Amino acid sequence: MYLKKLELNGFKSFADKTTLEILPGVTSIVGPNGCGKTNIVDAISWVLGEQRIRMLRGYKMEDIIFNGTSGRQPIGMAEVTLTFDNSDGGLPIEYSEVSITRRIYRSGESGYYINKKACRLKDINELLLGTGLGNRSYSLVGQGRIDQILQARPEERRKLLEEAA
Amino acid sequence: MYLKKLELNGFKSFADKTTLEILPGVTSIVGPNGCGKTNIVDAISWVLGEQRIRMLRGYKMEDIIFNGTSGRQPIGMAEVTLTFDNSDGGLPIEYSEVSITRRIYRSGESGYYINKKACRLKDINELLLGTGLGNRSYSLVGQGRIDQILQARPEERRKLLEEAA
Amino acid sequence: AREKLQVTYDIVRKHFQDIFQHLFGGGKADLILDIEKDILESGLDIIAQPPGKKLSHISLLSGGERALTTIALIFALFKVQPSPFYILDEIDAPLDEANIGRFVNLLKTLASEAQFLIITHNKLSISEADILYGITMEESGVSKVVSVRLAAAAPKKPEPLPADK
Amino acid sequence: AREKLQVTYDIVRKHFQDIFQHLFGGGKADLILDIEKDILESGLDIIAQPPGKKLSHISLLSGGERALTTIALIFALFKVQPSPFYILDEIDAPLDEANIGRFVNLLKTLASEAQFLIITHNKLSISEADILYGITMEESGVSKVVSVRLAAAAPKKPEPLPADK
Ligand SMILES: Nc1ncnc2c1ncn2[C@@H]1O[C@H](COP(=O)(O)OP(=O)(O)OP(=O)(O)O)[C@@H](O)[C@H]1O
Ligand SMILES: Nc1ncnc2c1ncn2[C@@H]1O[C@H](COP(=O)(O)OP(=O)(O)OP(=O)(O)O)[C@@H](O)[C@H]1O
Ligand SMILES: [Mg+2]
Ligand SMILES: [Mg+2]
Fold it and tell me: Closest Cα to atom 2, ligand 1: which residue?
């Protein structure tokens, strides 16, 4: 099972639908300060179920919906989709391609989808269980957070071992 | 009043007596990871009176005394001296050159000195009052601490204005 | 004390607005004192709006934008009450080449009024220094100060890197 | 669950020791589980001793040494339970050129087993990517994905920077 593409639409500074194909190997994302690189990281942790808005650098959930610029109006919805190639059956589901989608409206309504069928967060967590994606503490290192693992309390660090077990 | 030189002896990784002349303008300190650059910053905040060992990345006060390497024995004392040119009388003291020294022994004894005469921390703080060196919150930005000012609570930030007043 | 703080606030605020626009090449910034309370107890809010972007909470700014905003505040406080010397330990780490260039150029204009000790790994920051200290550990675990390059001794500064690298 | 954790601990520990020595070019590291308690409740301590230095608490390590130690731990956990993809947002920021080189070389050996998304400003890290995405804000405030360089399409990778730059 591997990641094929990421699609963002209306998420933070990505006002227009944007697709990133992800190949095997190392994909490097570059660009000037403030151009939207870390917003991509936020999009991935959000679609995988991140509930704490502070971890996405916002104060209220709609802070992740495109808020407008000097030349554009704010948008009413944000949506992110992660598509996996599942031809090796790594994910416990019938499909050879699996997409996970999360959507939120300014009204506060939000939803999760697996292959465009509505589901709950619980279903996504069950799907990802055992792949290492469930709890992303060591596979997603946010900007400026490299020191968090060393600074964590010893019991927290034991949890890293438990995830890997 | 300006800074003329910094002398370290037995402070952290500076086992031997080391002198850095400081000229007017911009002095850049460079070197590989772990070579001792931030230890110089720690030395300056320590000689100016820093009491919190955690701010110097240690757990007990003797963590700042040279602790030995694979080829050297630990040393029993650490000493740091900052020398200022005071020919403009910026510091309220008779001398045209003023040096501030702090010393600590492994036994835990420690002392402060102004121009080699023993004094208390209180005397050093009074000497530096009004120069902007007293409270170094905006003139000393430690490694990885650039975000602390923006993350501080609004009341903390007001204190920055008070220091500048 | 109240008047003094009010006067300091007015000056720092003005400088912060100017320096922010200079560093970001546009945009708007402000320092807001919470006027409900007595000025001696109120909090200071920071508003920062990079050019072309909508005004939003400073937590949504990127790592580099936050660092640059903090630098603008430090230099605004400098204008009101310059400390004799400043120590900045890798504050250019989150910045891209273009912003390092702007930071370094601003630093050079202030370097005639105070001494700056800059720790950095970035070639552009290094090339603008008046004096350069290299720290090594030829004897492992023991820090030594090596090369000293005086600007006067090296008449031609190494060509500052073109910002587009 | 106890056996599983014990087995995982033994494997991660071994990999951590090896990868640490590889990244630091020597030295010693270890993961210590507090055995007084039941393994399911105990804390995990991290020991790191760069080459030639005396063993001391990890808080005394430099910024770059701490980042490299954390990278060794992340990659040790990877060896036991690789997550399908990893996202590393500017984890090379505290590293000097030599350590970036070692990190990138190690990354390349792991890239055949998982996908890595690396956000970086460093030219050496960029040059080793298989695919490169540039993010820009041609329309201010709106992120767009621009250039895509496929390793296959660009037969000769830009010459990795010599580590001594
Ligand atoms: N809801 C939103 N609508 C529009 N723009 C947003 C929204 N949320 C955040 N932004 C913008 O995104 C920008 C930050 O982007 P991001 O943190 O991804 O930058 P970056 O590329 O990681 O930069 P750096 O190199 O400095 O880390 C900010 O300027 C912010 O204004
Ligand atoms: N009391 C001590 N005795 C001997 N060495 C010490 C002592 N305290 C700290 N050190 C050593 O100093 C080193 C850290 O130095 P420092 O933090 O100044 O590095 P740095 O040059 O800032 O590196 P970086 O570029 O990674 O930030 C550590 O390797 C540590 O072992
Ligand atoms: Mg970022
Ligand atoms: Mg350092």
Answer: A12
